[in-house]
């Protein structure tokens, strides 16, 4: 018998993943479909329903007590709608209602943004475990994040709180697709790290990898242009993290996502830059750590967010099986 079984959906521009997750964070059943992001809204919805149908067909389904959804955003948790930037056909799409009906209409459904889901996962089972005040972020194709404050997930009224990618850190910087200027995402996301390196004269090695991973490999080998691109990204992240810490007094910033896979190429200059930006006495001891929940972060975070009453029990570091997120 599995305790506190919940269904989790992780919806992004590339894939729609689903799982049944128990109270200890074990993923017991998985389902996945590609996201038909360039097709119509109903086509995308049917892909979600196909994933959910696989989960409801499991013999474990009768034990599910709630459904959690972590979605690319913006989301509107109050309205139960999503408008993901990378799924153009979904604008104010009533995702919560569709999922609730597809699951039989009897289970509570909770929606959060994908950055908030990452925060839920990392506070439950990852690097932010045992910390009452944390910023958890993903640095990948985009930059997102979520907050834990006073030991509880803090999604905000619409489910988007902690979206650090769209803090402006360069007042005269490039325009961002969000409409702002000089956003963290416009400097520190994987595509922009690669673009800056290429613009400044870096060229890929024999493998032809022109992504941020290729730039990271070159930086590890000592290429000065590649190193400089990562250092600029690190400064943007440090400025955003320091601003967040100054505003809400977090004591740890957890960084995950594909760009974090660069390791010390990113974390070395990030920690050094943080000393330049987090200078006030109450943020000086801020810790930066790599995320630990990996590829399952979205699913684990959606599962954690599905049962918010768990959060009162998560901020003391006990055995994983003794609590949820």
TrEMBL record:
The lineage of its organism: Bacteria, Bacillati, Actinomycetota, Actinomycetes, Kitasatosporales. It comes from Streptomyces solincola. This is ROK family protein. Gene3D superfamilies: 3.30.420.40. It holds the Pfam family ROK. InterPro entries: ATPase_NBD, ROK, ROK_cs. Belongs to the ROK (NagC/XylR) family.
